[in-house]
Amino acid sequence: MKRIILTLLAALMLAATPAAAQTTAGHDAKMAWWRGAHFGMFIHWGPYAQWGGFYNGYMQRLGGTEWIMNRCKIPVAEYKAKAAEFNPVNFDADAVARMARDAGMKYLVITSKHHDGFAMFQSDASPFNIVDHTPYKRDVVDQLVKACKKYGLKFGVYYSQMQDWTNGGGTALKPSSLGWPNPEADKVDAYTQAHKGSWDPAQQVRTYDEYFEQIAYPQIRELLTRHGSDIHVLFWDTPQHMKEAYAEKIMDLLKDYPHIITNDRLIRRNARFTGDYKTPEQTIPTEKQLDGCDWETSMTISSSWGHQKRGTSWKSARTLITNLIDIVSKGGNFLLNIAPDETGAIPQPNIKRLAAVGSWMDKYSDAIYGTERASVGRPHWGYCSQKFTPDGKTKVYLYVMDWPEDGELLFRIYENATAARLLDSGKSLDFENTHDGIYLKVPAEAPDDIASVIELEFDHALPRMERKSMNNKNFEIVDEKR
Prior knowledge:
Elements (H helix, E strand, L loop, with lengths): L1 H36 L1 E5 L4 H4 L2 E2 L2 E2 L8 H4 L4 H8 L9 H10 L4 E7 L26 H11 L3 E7 L24 H10 L13 H20 L3 E7 L6 H11 L6 E2 L33 E5 L16 H13 L3 E6 L9 H17 L7 E2 L8 E7 L5 E7 L7 E4 L7 E4 L8 E4 L2 E5 L10 E7 L24
Parallel strand pairs: 1-4, 1-9, 4-5, 5-6, 6-7, 8-9
Antiparallel strand pairs: 2-3, 10-11, 11-12, 12-17, 13-16, 14-17, 15-16
């Protein structure tokens, strides 16, 4: 009898194996373009651009400018009245998508609805949208869908599924009113503490359940019904007060769109709804924090996610390129944010920096697209990644940030290379395989002022870092091995 049971168990295990393998293969196929892209554009934009970080003559003192309604506790009626003047006639979706492509980006994600509750698309669920509430009368999401298709970019939408400060019923995090020196701050703070973070009775006209059923769920369905085949990424945010029942309804909708990739912010720390990738924000994980899951760092190009009229600080092109290399060398994606102004125009510092990144990508994109985290770790003079070819060979890319003064570079890998070249010019380099690693003879001057790239070829497959399934540690990256 024991033998029969063991035989049956073995048969069941064998029968289950192909299905499990097929599931993994299907997930890998869905993620393939995203894993190979590595670089995308984020756009935070809405009527908060009209304030540009200033309220009642004061520069906002806390948070990004897209949080100005919450941080300064702007009344709902006042915010809606200002939004009714939003008329971004200078917005050019074609130019934005072209700029993303020219910068070397492969996908684009737009805030279809941020926490202020304003939809950048026409919505039957709420009149507080760019078509029905403003003189602009045009659907920004629809424009960007078409522009991304024209320029070969994958399209994605950010949607704040539970936080909403205008439609009523959504959550309202960060109760403090320290965004400006409000003479009634104590009164406002006391009100928010007594009303779960909301500061205006208009925010309390629905329960969480009613908000989800009447606003969030219908709007998500609208986006999918109109653009589901063209949406490749859904970026959720601030899932406080999300229930499993809400997540189940959303995931049921997504069953008809199996190609869509979702992040880890649908619901907090839930093993059933982990999403497809993790989302460290404004930071790059260390190697000790990596756990083998897919991940994407989202980061601002300036000091704010939304448009800021004055006092803005900007990351240099050197910093942006270094960040891209750092992220790619660790197997992640870089989602870099820009912020159109209140007219829809892209501020010049964004354009200047993306053009500089694009110039670097024109020379070195082969060292970005399709690469993976290498098992050798980070070299002291820069970074490295690897790429596997269909014929079973491996290419390793050395991103040299500190060019050697003595004309020799040591790469500490204990494998024999078959070829080496400068990636920008294709010029072959002399090298020596030794027990110390690979010594490369390099020119006296670095080919690039920021990061020069050397391509090494190996006639065999090098060790590969394991790609692990997602876990439920939302907003966290933990690697116990390093």
